[in-house]
Amino acid sequence: MYKILTKRTLGPGIREYVIEAPDIARVGKAGQFIVLRLHEKGERIPLTIVNVDPETGGVTLVIQEVGKSTREMGEQFHEGDSILDFAGPLGEATEIENYGTVVCVGGGVGIAPLYPIVRALKAAGNTVIGIIGYRSRDLMFYEEEFASSCDELIIMTNDGSYGKQGFVSDPLKQILESGRKIDRVWSIGPAIMMKVCADITRPFAVPTIVSLNSVMIDGTGMCGGCRVNVGGVAKFACVDGPEFDGHQVDFDLLMLRQGYYHDEESCSMDAYMAKQAEGVEK
Amino acid sequence: MIHAKQTPMREQPAAERVHNFNEVPLGYSPDEAVQEAERCLQCPHEPCVKGCPVGIDIPKFIEHVKNREFGQAISVIKTDNSLPAVCGRVCPQENQCQGVCTLAGRFEPVAIGRLERFCADWEAENETRYANIEPDTGKRIAVIGAGPAGLTVAGEMRRRGHSVTIFELLHVAGGVLMYGIPEFRLPKHIVQREISALCEMGVEVKVNKVIGRTQTVQDLLDGDYDSVFIGTGAGLPRFLGVPGESLNGVFSANEFLTRTNLMKAYRFPEYDTPIKVGKRVVTVGGGNVAMDSSRTALRLGAKESFIVYRRSEDELPARGEEVHHAKEEGIQFQLLTNPIEFIGENGNLRAIRCIKMELGEPDDSGRRRPVPIEGSEFEIEAETVVIAIGNGPHPLIPQSTPNLDLNRWGSIVADPETGLTSIPGVYAGGDIVTGAATVIEAMGAGKRAAVAMHAFLAEK
Ligand SMILES: Cc1cc2nc3c(=O)[nH]c(=O)nc-3n(C[C@H](O)[C@H](O)[C@H](O)COP(=O)(O)OP(=O)(O)OC[C@H]3O[C@@H](n4cnc5c(N)ncnc54)[C@H](O)[C@@H]3O)c2cc1C
Ligand SMILES: Cc1cc2nc3c(=O)[nH]c(=O)nc-3n(C[C@H](O)[C@H](O)[C@H](O)COP(=O)(O)OP(=O)(O)OC[C@H]3O[C@@H](n4cnc5c(N)ncnc54)[C@H](O)[C@@H]3O)c2cc1C
Ligand code: SF4
Ligand code: SF4
Ligand code: FES
Which A positions 32-71 lie with beta carbon below 8 A of chain B? Predict the structure, then answer.
């Protein structure tokens, strides 16, 4: 059992957890993830490591409620409770070097996994330009964290309720078109956002790293369910990635595969909601 | 006068069992077991014992069954095999103990596996017999991977008085016995019963520990452990490498079976992990894994389930009993056939393009090599395909252990007698060394490694 040390709500349906897992906290690095299972009947869900604290043994996660398991976690699992299974760190760590000037683009909950990468890049001596985007102001989190780690920070909201109005890809394009020398780009967020960013940087030949969230089960290379197509070759996102060269990734295939269990996911959510409603009546 | 035929074992009827995940063969009653035991000739030269990779004293345990001394029978079995309830169910007996039984020439061989299963189940219902544990030696060993190889090493080393910790990356111990072999062939509570018995002996099982990530082999050696055993199996699924393999609806057998067995997707949405099966399901391959996948597909609601295998019936590597059960359940065999392309519609599988094969000259394995017949392409409509053409070595340990010698397939090189690897104090066995093989061979390797590790620790 893995104890929840702290839980914080960052916005509607967005929570930050610190889970006690000392052996993972000792070695986990930016870019890696864990797989957790809430309870005996739970699914194995992959979540990125946002921070580790070897002193307290805490592993920080940020979770957006998108379906049954993430919602159940957000609603039912509180500080002091325990999670049944927690395994990691999985996947390859981000390659951190002093590249020069880098742009780190994050969208939605992708902003959380981007944060440790930004910090590590900064510590390695890079000039870091952050671009983070949210649907609207009430969904914002980690603004201060980014502000203190980035040399420049651009905040976008889709509805213009804070920062500039538009998509994260807009300022990325402007920076590249301005002729400023950019040595590397990270783009982490929904598949469509990563695809658009990769399309923007391609003509400028700026290496662009994306983090792929294909559907996973074991997270250790044993099922092949997470396979993605990179440069025409099938790769397992959980062990070969999750970070890949964005210019080589077949994003359309990724999105098709992400949608395969759509009907079952809705069914699972409905069953959960019905059970909650029943509980309330009792 | 001996009966020519084995005492039959009662089974769930095929029409009924394709709708549930309950075990298919129902086991012997004590009378049936005694009746079967009476067929044994007690051959002085014991061919059956030599046919068993762990050398169970088969005539002796059968004699006890015949005399209704079931407790003594299980004690005899357990001297050499710590997972009898498992082996009695899944060993390919026809190629091992039963294949060389004296009766096998003219009659049906003694049903050794069924008798072994009977004794193990009898023990579970009546009295548990524990192995004697030697006094503590103060030595500590780490076992990586909780499949049959690792579990065997753990039991054997604990019995010799060493302290044993098993590290397993999944959330349960058991390896393929838990995530691969289906409930209807090997009920999971039986596997867990065997693992609980190990825990009661004092073996510590740590799940969710991904060795190579959470800790490395070197960390274990530098830390608390005097010796390490690697039993991480052949968990890397192979794909065909034909066009369309990324379509939705194309599964590796590992994914298909893991969702179903380990994550219990057959009870979705009570359990959270889903699985999707089409009306028509095709499984590619001819081994146990393929039989398990095609039979699982029926139980998950497929209307028709096919096996596509590139050689002929004679070369099917699956256990005879599995092929027999599959046929009874209505699995359709498309033999001498190989898939060449998966055809999709909106990203989902719609059909499989296949080509007919014929058998040519013998290949390295001594079996006749299948060669495609030009112009014989045809399509099978299907929404789901399961690829069960074998697994490669699980790569995490090989990748994260720099001094470990590997062969050209990426398997760990270990001495066949002792299991010793290229790193002093580090032993390996089971599928990670041999490539995908059998439960009992993995256990045999575990037993031999335990003997060698014990000798190594005595000198240390
Ligand atoms: C390497 C990796 C790192 C991730 N990191 C984070 C993170 O830090 N924070 C976060 O909020 N989310 C993260 N995710 C996504 C998270 O795993 C899914 O949101 C979660 O599994 C959804 O479960 P659910 O039951 O709540 O939703 P479901 O109802 O199962 O699904 C809702 C949506 O989530 C996607 N999804 C479902 N199952 C999986 C799965 N096993 N893996 C990936 N996506 C899935 C589906 O395509 C669907 O769009 C990560 C995914 C991967 C692969
Ligand atoms: C579907 C299926 C059906 C089969 N049917 C039969 C049958 O009927 N009869 C028969 O005799 N054989 C059968 N086999 C083969 C048999 O199951 C295997 O030969 C046997 O399980 C091998 O045992 P093992 O201990 O070497 O490895 P495994 O059983 O594969 O166990 C390895 C364990 O190590 C763990 N592991 C891997 N890497 C790490 C790591 N880095 N850190 C921690 N843990 C790790 C894995 O999670 C796994 O639990 C079947 C196999 C499959 C897949
Ligand atoms: S362990 Fe397997 S090979 Fe040995 S006697 Fe039992 S069934 Fe036969
Ligand atoms: S070979 Fe067959 S008949 Fe002879 S002792 Fe063994 S089981 Fe009995
Ligand atoms: S999640 Fe199973 S192989 Fe990647």
Answer: 37, 41-44, 68-69
Structurally, at CATH architecture level, domain B239-389 sits in: 3-Layer(bba) Sandwich (3.50)
Give distance in angstroms: CA of B281 to centre of ligand 3.
33
Same domain, A55 and A122: no
Instruction: Look up the pTM and report it.
Output: 0.94
- Using CA atoms in the order A149, A186, A87, A260, what is the torsion angle rounded to 10 degrees? 140
pLDDT tens, residue by residue, B290-345 = 999 999 999 999 999 999 999 999 889 998 889 999 999 999 999 999 999 999 99
* Domain count along chain A: 2
Closest C-alpha among A182, A187, A232 to residue A210? A187
The span from the CA of B424 to the CA of B58, in Å, is 36
Per residue in A77-93, pLDDT tens?
Answer: 999 999 999 999 999 99
Chain B contact for A269, CB < 8 A?
no
Same structural domain, A197 and A99 = yes
Q: Do B258 and A260 touch (CB under 8 A)?
A: no
Report if residue A185 sits inside a domain.
Answer: yes
Interface membership of A24 toward B (CB under 8 Å):
yes
In a domain, A242, yes or no: no
**Pick among 3.50.50.60, 2.40.50.100, 3.30.2400.10, 3.30.1050.10: CATH of B140-235+392-459:** 3.50.50.60
pLDDT of residue A282: 47
* Sign of the CA dihedral with B225 first, then B230, B235, and B239 last: positive
Helix %, strand %, coil % for chain B, to 5? 35, 20, 45
CATH number at residue A33: 2.40.30.10
Choose from B213, B238, B259, B400 for mutation: most chain A CBs within 10 A: B213
User: Domain spanning B14-125: which CATH class is it, in words?
Assistant: mainly alpha
- Would you say the CATH fold of B239-389 matches that of B140-235+392-459? yes
Neighbouring C-beta atoms of residue B329, cutoff 10 Å: 18
Question: Would you call A265 and B274 a contact, using CB atoms and an 8 Å cutoff?
Answer: yes
At B1, the pLDDT band (50, 70, 90 cuts) reads low
Place of tokens 């290496």: A207
pLDDT digits 0-9 by tens, A133-154: 999 999 999 999 999 999 999 9
Domain that holds residue A141: 93-211
pLDDT (average), residues B425-454: 95
Residue A137 CA neighbour count, 13 Å, CB half: 6
How crowded is residue B74: how many other Cβ atoms within 10 Å of its Cβ?
A: 27
Contact of B20 with chain A, judged by CB distance below 8 Å, is answered with no
Mean pLDDT of A226-248: 95
